[in-house]
Model the fold of this input.
Amino acid sequence: MNDPRPGQRFSLDETHDEFPKQNIEITPELRFSPAAASQPLIDAPPPEVDSALDRALAHPRKRRWGLLTLLGGSLTLGAVQAVETFREAWLGSDWLAGAWSVLGFFAVGLAGAMLGRELFKLRRLRRHARLREAVEDQDGDTFALLDQLRKQMGLSDDDPHWQAFLKAHQQHHDDGETRTLFAHHVLAPRDARARQMITRMSGETAIMVAISPLTLLDMALMAWRNLRLVDRIAALYGLELGYASRLALFRAVLTNMAFAGASEIATEASMDLLSMNLAGKLSTRAGQGLGSGLLTARLGLRTLKMLRPLPFSESEAPRIGDLRRQLWQQLKQVDKDQPS
Amino acid sequence: MALTLPQNLNDLLERTLDRQVRLAVTGLSQAGKTAFLTSLVNQLRHAGLDARLDLLTPVREGRILGAQRINQPDLSIPRFPYDEGIAALSSAPPRWPEATRGISELRLSIRYRSRTRSRHLLGEQAQLTLDLIDYPGEWLLDLPLLKLDYLQWCERMAELMTERRKHYAAPFLDAVAVLDPTMDADEQQLAELAARYAGSLHKARNEGGYTYVQPGRFLLPGELAGAPVLQFFPLPDLGDADRERFAALPAQSIYKTLEARFEHYKRTVVGPFYRDYFRRFDRQIVLVDVLSALNAGPDVFGDLRLALSTLMQSFDYGRRSLVNRLFNPRIDRLAIAATKADHVTPEQHPRLLSLVEALLAEPIKDLRYADVPVRAFSLAAIRATEARTVAGNADQQQPVLKGTTQDGEDVLLFPGDVPEQLPDADFWQRQGFTFTSFRPAPFTASSALPHIRMDAALDWLLGDKLR
Done:
């Protein structure tokens, strides 16, 4: 091991090499005429910057071309085939085959109409989501957007709620104020009904599960009633769901519950568990019933939040806690009435 | 600051339950305080009936039962002249309520249905007592005097003397220039100079439109007219260097006499005014008449900005707790309102807002630091005009106002754009502003007053108390 080197002095006039310089190029000052055309420097990030993340998170949007081709193709071919068979039957005077082909043609037409309706309803659901986003982002004239929303909700021009909104709305109201008024006059009555419906249906689900004798039946009941709940809430906001759109919405609600709602569930979980434990003390069935009731309620609230044309403000958003007590009371009632 | 005890036991109880609110309606003269108060009482009286208060949440939810004027705690103060204001508005031709010449008080009891959980315990009907005070805006600018001594005040006044202001104050300035502050005081001479000073303040206020006019009692002396306490004035060209030189002067010298009167004015006029009315507020609304200031030009506009930011240092702001709600109330929420919003077309309101925010930028920063929520509103307590459109050029609908001017002429006009920021000097040279002022629309005494955004402002100020 070397000893540490002692200090060393150099005289200033001693010749020494320059410290090796790195190659740095420094641009000298540039002058432009103040009159020269220049554009403002835009340093805001391009708007797409977070969409990569969004795209990764959102489930891939795929058009089911294969399925559509299959369905469309078989419908077209079926129709052609039916017409062809009919022509041959006509020429050959084979009445039975002719009747069959007419029937076949009718069936193909029916299927086509159904497919068209499904696609149309899916599109309406998407349009609803788009409009909701536009209103939320204040994309354009708020009043015009709300008018469009009214049409989509299927309200006529002289609907009392809409009229009340028109009466309250004044020219000087800004976007936020206009939306507050719309939410109060047009949406609030529907929200209240939706909330009632959720309370009622979750209560009924809880009781049905509590008294049903078969687990398999429980599951079927839950699925059926939950789908029905989503359907009814959608109808309140003027959305008519077809088979495909119902599935799409239901799936979106479940995804939303699984991800966005997870934190909410985490905060509420202890309360839920406590109520279920308490109910479990009463009877195991009541505990199960309460669990399923709470699930239905949560699903309903989530659907409500997703479908409401304007998002809820912090204070007015319905909470699961408000429903829990009612559920619990309904169940206790059943337990009390039950002969032991 | 010393603790302020609530006036009686009942108040103490009410304040403990948070059922009493003192609302400071702050505004310089002509900012629309009296109109605001008249409209406020009127709207709350008619709440839930024919008043359009859709943006006030408890009214929208149908929970307000009504409001009533009740006896104020201090019986020696005149009652706010609400009925006189309504009478003026409903006369033919309609007039604006008279300018305030003295202090008046008003206590309003608002009854509403509570929605909180404690309602099962305390009863569903709840009551909120709202205390309001009206006072001449001229006196308000006396409050900053409390923090100054005579010499500082003289310096402050000298800073305010712009070219245009000197023009109004010429008779006073000429006379005071030859005065030697070290001489013995001559009562007659001082009285005459003080009268000239008061005259210059009147001119600056009425002809120039200036708002930073001190002391306020010189404009509206009330019962103090002619008393020696109002016979003082600022000496020009004083600096810190003079302080020691003057401190050694005998008591009968001019400087010492003026100083003594200034201190006396602070102690006996401003002090009680501040202590009795301005220290126990919970909420505040600052009314600013931006349009008149724009009409008067850049000089007055700068003056207004200075006056407002000086003024707002006189109030206590901050978060509240139970303890200081009882003994040391502070303003915990504030609204800033650009008044007379009915004098511009509706699409100009956002610009009006950003202008008033720019005007009050400095106080707003302080409020943010104190964590006091502030919101700006464009507001018309009593709407005088109706917004309409006419067909403009190129298929554009031109928004216009329909109303009657102060001279009684029916007009349909576009009053002009409101600038988003204070325009630069060039612009004032080129164009300037001329916003027309209107007389109130015809009104029958039994109905609710038309307004712009009173409901939103009330919701911000009182909404959380009416839950």
Observations:
- The longest helix of chain A spans residues 95-136.
- Chain A has two domains: 69-119, 145-337.
- The interface with chain B takes residues 168, 170-174, 177, 180-181, 184 of chain A (CB under 8 Å).
- Chain A has a mean pLDDT of 79.
